[in-house]
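Retro notes, item 3 of 5
We never archived the inputs for the coenzyme A complex last cycle. Fixing that now. Sequence and ligand:
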Amino acid sequence: MSAKIEETSIKHLDRLYEIETECFETEAFTKQQIAYLLTDYNSVGLVAKVNGEIAGFIIGKVYANGKSATGHILTIDVSPKHRRRGIGLKLLHEIEKAFTDKGVKICCLEAREDNIAALNLYRKHGYKIVGRLKNYYGSANGVCLRKVLT
Ligand SMILES: CC(C)(COP(=O)(O)OP(=O)(O)OC[C@H]1O[C@@H](n2cnc3c(N)ncnc32)[C@H](O)[C@@H]1OP(=O)(O)O)[C@@H](O)C(=O)NCCC(=O)NCCS
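Structure as it came back at the time:
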């Protein structure tokens, strides 16, 4: 069954935190951090539902920048049992649409340089590595990726 994308809110906090802890052993956002992101005025949060269950989510933020705006994806998580079915790509696609509606021209994000799944996903969706971030994740390096939205 294909995933349905919906806006999320604080009412999904418990499930989003559950998925966050399934996705990240270390470096997981705390429940408080997710709550903050979900309630921030500039945030965009979406969930992917499969058979009514939340299978994954994405949260980003819009930064006004003069006449245009920049979108920053803060987290994208798909529950392990729902992976490799296109949900990550769908979440990215939908948040970019939401960003575009808010005037965003450029979307950026960071990832661990050893996160092959995420890097392949982003590359497949048109993101390019534009910088390296030494020790961005404690002792692990990060990369900074960027895409011009059309
Ligand atoms: C990264 C993540 C969001 C991908 O979600 P997903 O729903 O499985 O991704 P998709 O099914 O849309 O995959 C799209 C493409 O990404 C790449 N990809 C996804 N998972 C991959 C993996 N485990 N290994 C290699 N490439 C992978 C592939 O190119 C894939 O296309 P394909 O299936 O046709 O080969 C998911 O693995 C996840 O939640 N990981 C833990 C959290 C995380 O690391 N988030 C990113 C933080 S920067």
